[in-house]
Design a protein that fits this description.
The protein is mainly β and 122 residues long. The chain has no helices and eleven strands.
């Protein structure tokens, strides 16, 4: 399965963005999906994850209450709704898939999409 993240952009602090992770070449509903972000010179950080059915989710403490992960398996797409964005949310955001339950360690994801840049100005 191939994944593609899109929907990033340049916004002001306090604004919202919705990222999408679209799958092709496979059924995304078979996979748990994680969202990660990375800034230059740093490791890829866990942001959020969602189980294959959408019934369970997990968030990094830094985004709890502001970000919401959801999925529409009929559309083969996972979403990351980002509200109340802060300058420290600036990063390249990636989506990734793995079979089985989601985890927060990016090394345990098998399928990655190209990232999408999110820039939040103060």
């Amino acid at each position: 399965v191939q994944l593609q993240a899109y929907g990033g952009g340049l916004v002001q602090a306090g604004a919202s963005l919705r990222l999408s992770c679209a799958a092709s070449g496979g059924t995304l509903g078979r996979y748990a999906v994680g969202w990660f972000r990375q800034v230059p010179g740093k490791e890829r950080d866990f942001v959020a994850a969602i189980g294959w059915s959408g019934g369970s989710t997990s968030y990094a403490d830094s985004v709890k209450g502001r970000f919401t992960v959801s999925r529409d398996n009929a559309k083969n797409t996972v979403y990351l709704q980002m509200n109340s964005l802060k300058p420290e949310d600036t990063a390249v955001y990636y989506c990734a898939g793995r079979q089985g339950f989601y985890v927060s360690d990016y090394a345990h994801y098998d399928y990655w999409g190209q990232g999408t840049q999110v820039t939040v100005s103060s």
